[in-house]
Amino acid sequence: MELNPNLTKLPEWLKRWNTQGKLVDFGFALTDGAFRFDRKTLTLIPLPDHQPFTVTLRLRKLLGTTKRISAVEAVDETGKVIGSVPFTQRNDEVTFKTQAGVFASSAA
Asked: 80 — phi, psi (to 5°)?
């Protein structure tokens, strides 16, 4: 970290952060958040202490195929289902919002 006496100038490291919460298109996902994704279990894990965010997963780009999702579930650190997550699916795109205090979201 560096001292920044000129508060109108952003530090170089902060320029790479999405501080305005804009949607960023990564090809396989469109999101205003940060996460890890397990393709085998279709589980999205937000980075620790991240605020809730919206994500659109593009299944064809993630999995190489389209799949109909029947549910998105909130899961705890042990993998236990603790609730459901509202979602929409349009063709191969699944959109939902992560939830505060939830370890991960898993699509089935």
From this structure: -75, 135
